[in-house]
Design a protein that fits this description.
Layout (H helix, E strand, L loop, with lengths): L9 H9 L3 E4 L11 H8 L15 H13 L9 E4 L1 H13 L5 E6 L4 H9 L2 E6 L11 H7 L4 E7 L11 H14 L2 E5 L25 E6 L12 E5 L2 H13 L5 H10 L4 H22 L6 E2 L7 E5 L5 H10 L6 E4 L1 E2 L13 E5 L4 H17 L3
Parallel strand pairs: 1-11, 3-4, 3-5, 5-6, 6-7
Antiparallel strand pairs: 2-8, 7-8, 9-10, 10-13, 12-13
Helix pairs in contact: 2-9, 3-9, 4-5, 4-8, 10-12
Bound molecules: pyridoxal-5'-phosphate.
The site of pyridoxal-5'-phosphate has 13 residues, from helix 4.
Length: about 375
């Protein structure tokens, strides 16, 4: 199993805390936004006498309400097409296990969410990367480039929309191109939409399951982790209209018996969260993104992709190796008792050597902290000697 490129720096961060340094965490996607009160209260006020298993596919009442949520977003699904999972992570694992046999291939635009590597390894799947570029803001690579990579072993295209780590939001036209390609080559299109609610500048998210004719091909991955800032609930879901996918994924679900019961109660209640909660969150993230990008663009020699969604961006630095740089920031660098932790981007690529001068920054800190953190990055780059 590959180690997480985000978590492998943790021992160095711990050393930094021991040395009494304050560390600004730009490295991890744990939002600082409060979880909806209604979800917390639902657990506090429960009336259960036995904390029992639920059905393997998730509790009926919760699935009915998730279906309503999707229908309100122009995604026509019903409860029987939803399997509740232990986070989006387990939904990804079930999806991979359901669509591929040992040695099969999945094409993924890189840079991609690093844990796809771990899920693919666990499922015996080979990831075939297709490079997207910072110069294009990480837009969808040309379909002709995808087609060059399709082999008899290719089972699916996997996208993350909006993207972690790029923040790129695929347009309706790009989704239509992907849909036409998977139909032509009889592949699945797996779309990780865990950040679907986080889109900025008035843009509209277009889901693969909104696209007509994707019933047999589309598999949507979702999660409450980021949407409601409920990462610790460990609830997500797999959604598909393909009956074979559902019955296969259900076998994986049955093997692990049930998603967590309390967390389903919290997640069901979270669905009543008023739109005003999201409106406020979107305003907050838009301001953070603007602040972050504005500050980063003041750093000489730095390139940054402008995120249109999620809460990450990739920055290219005037250095050779961001793994070494990230470790140096924690071990050997400090400004007024403070430093930063960033995620080296090489771990988000699967082509060897690509992305070594890039880092991923998560804007899950308030604006003042972001300004301070980027200033620390600026001073660090001025003082760094490779
Ligand atoms: C793109 C993406 N997919 C899936 C996940 C998994 O999230 P969870 O298992 O908490 O739902 C994450 C978490 O950061 C993510 O960034």
């Amino acid at each position: 199993m590959p180690e997480s490129p985000i978590r492998k720096l943790v021992p160095f961060a711990e050393k930094a805390y021991k040395a009494n340094k304050k560390v600004y965490h730009l490295n991890i996607g744990q939002p600082d936004i409060k979880s909806p009160q209604i979800a917390m209260e639902a657990v506090e006020n429960h009336h259960l006498e036995i904390l029992a298993y639920t059905r393997s596919e998730g509790s009926e009442g919760y699935r009915e309400k998730i279906a309503k949520y999707y229908n309100s977003k122009n995604i026509p699904v019903n409860a029987s097409e939803i399997i509740v999972t232990t986070g989006g992570s387990e939904a990804l694992l079930f999806a991979m296990g359901s669509i591929a046999d040992e040695g099969d291939e999945i094409i993924i635009p890189e840079p991609f969410y690093a844990n796809y590597n771990g899920f693919a390894t666990a499922s015996g799947i080979k990831i075939v990367p297709i490079n997207s570029k910072i110069e294009d803001n990480f837009a969808l690579p040309p379909i002709s480039e995808f087609e060059k990579l399709i082999t008899p072993k290719t089972k699916a295209i996997l996208i993350c929309n909006p993207g972690n780590p790029t923040g790129y939001l695929y347009s309706k036209d790009e989704i239509k191109l992907l849909a036409a390609m998977v139909k032509k080559h009889d592949l699945f299109l797996v779309s990780d939409e865990v950040y679907r609610e986080f889109v900025y500048d008035g843009a509209q998210h277009y889901s693969i399951l909104e696209e007509p004719g994707m019933e047999d091909y589309g598999i949507l991955i979702d999660s409450v982790s980021k949407r409601y800032s409920m990462c610790g609930a460990r609830i997500g879901c797999l959604v598909s209209k393909n009956k074979e996918i559902l019955s296969t994924a259900l076998k994986f679900a049955q093997a692990r018996l049930s998603p967590p019961t309390f967390a389903q109660i919290a997640s069901e209640a979270a669905l009543q969260t008023p739109q005003s909660y999201f409106d406020e969150v979107i305003v907050e993230y838009t301001e953070r993104r603007n602040t972050l990008i504005n500050e980063l663009q003041k750093i000489p020699g730095l390139k940054v992709g402008i995120p249109k969604g999620a809460f990450y961006c990739i920055a290219e630095l005037p250095i050779k190796d961001s793994d070494v740089f990230a470790q140096w920031l924690l071990e050997d660098f400090v400004v007024d008792g403070e430093t930063i932790m960033v995620a080296p981007a090489a771990g988000f690529y699967s082509t060897p050597g690509v992305g070594k001068n890039q880092i991923r920054i998560a804007y899950v800190l308030n604006k003042e902290s972001l300004i301070t953190a980027v200033n620390i990055l600026k001073i660090a780059l001025e003082n760094y000697k490779e």
